[in-house]
Request: fold
Amino acid sequence: MFELPAVVPFAREIIDQAGLADRVTVQAGNFQQEGVGHGYDVALVFGVLNGEPPQGRPALIRKVYDCLNPGGRIVLRDFVLDPDRAGPPEAAIFALQMLLTTEAGGLDTRDDWARWLVEAGFASPRTIPLPEWVGADLTIAVKPAP
Reply:
């Protein structure tokens, strides 16, 4: 797990309480200012893309691709806009909030994600629907083996 330094102690506590400390490691850092390391099997990118500027979103996906082992997976979870970018209502309202409260944040469509993932080198992504109360589905793509 790659997380901001201030969050690392809380992440480690949660991982330990879940009995996963022997399987999950936490690395402190800031992906916007440094590399994220390498050798990962899974990268959970939850609620991160929406805070990045438009050009930073595909760049982050490429950075994640570079840090994964062959066969590794990227898992994206965030609000996603419909192709016409006018809905669904919760995502459109969140996109407006990002526009008003950040310098460059915003939302994308699932087609945007799919294009960026494939351009980075991932196999075609798939979407796993989650219960509506979760607020977002998962998009998963695999880094092919050489």
Strands lie at 2-3, 27-28, 40-46, 68-77, 126-128, 138-142.
